[in-house]
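Office hours follow-up: a student asked to see two folded examples consecutively, so here they are.
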Amino acid sequence: MSRVMLITGASRGIGAATARLAAAEGYALCLNFHHRADAAQQLLEELKSTGTQAIAVAADVADETQVARLFATIDEQFGRLDVLVNNAGMLERQMRLDEMDAARLMRVFAVNVTGSFLCAREAVKRMSTRYGGKGGSIVNVSSIAAKLGAPNEYIDYAAAKGAIDSMTLGLAKEVAAEGIRVNAVRPGVIRTEIHASGGEPGRVERVKASVPMGRGGEAEEVAEAILWLAGEKASYTSGALLDVSGGR
């Protein structure tokens, strides 16, 4: 059977680009989505038309019960899991910290941090040799914001991604002897819809001059890094934070 990959937040942007590339490499796919059912269904049909074995499962990764149901569906449909791509994430409108309330912080950390931890937990229970698994790979989608801090825009998002970096490093060491590699990509300014969520759809054009390469990145460029980390060509790579940021 094909190797099975779960991509959270797969309906758009980096998640969708990763799904297309993984399908081309022969993976069977579970496409997780939360709100964007139409986009997820369209991607699912596209992938199935190429002969890819794929399913789409709605679940809020910040909800422990829904995460359990997501992984139970993978168990039922595929009977195995080889790769988790922790891609689901969100940010809110740009503002300074002194304008943020606790409700916003809880929303941002629930999806970006708690969601990634819950999905990693369930993946480990299926992949780890400690639980009778055959090993696997976890790729977390962090952000270069974790290194830069995103001042005056969304330092809460940056801090959440900093937590993902720390989780990547710690979990990689916890499960290295159990057949699981854990790595992260840290995308820079990438042309996806997430910038609209922050209130500035044209953000890439505004900040691209600050990128040493002088341009924004494409979702496909991040997907290439994710697929490399997920696969056997990265067999001796674990605990890595791979910047895909044009040199920032």
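And the second, which I mentioned at the end of office hours:
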Amino acid sequence: MQSKATTPKHYIDELPENRKEPFLKLRRQILDNLPKGIEETIGYGMLAYVIPHHVYPNGYHCNPKLPLPFMNLASQKNFIAVYSMALYAKKDLMDWFTNAYAKRCKYKLDMGKSCIRFKKMNDIPFDLIGELTTKISAKEWIEIYETTTNKK
């Protein structure tokens, strides 16, 4: 479910009441732990945490006019999702995350390539998402991104 919001505030104002509290707690964890050089904006109809052009002028290879994606946060129809591109690109980070998740949560991890889906609002590991946010600096993400995209 893609939002037409143009600002993070507008996006949050559109959230259903039963999603606001957990969504805002996730957002706070991300913002409190966001590496230097990464900014919050709107991208792909959700909250986007990106490396802006003044830090990484090349932008996103799919569309260089867009900043380099780092992480996204979205309220979808049946769940809240955190999208972490680094999980997909760095196997040891994925291994750390899946192990840490299993230790902290009673429900099975529901995950796609970079999408972590939370259907049970009372079982969101807020602190784990905050910790995940700190695991890669903007500089390291750019290096991983450039190495990964140059192989294709």
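Two things to take away from it. The mean pLDDT is 92. The helical segments are 8-14, 17-33, 85-89, 91-104, 126-134, 138-151.
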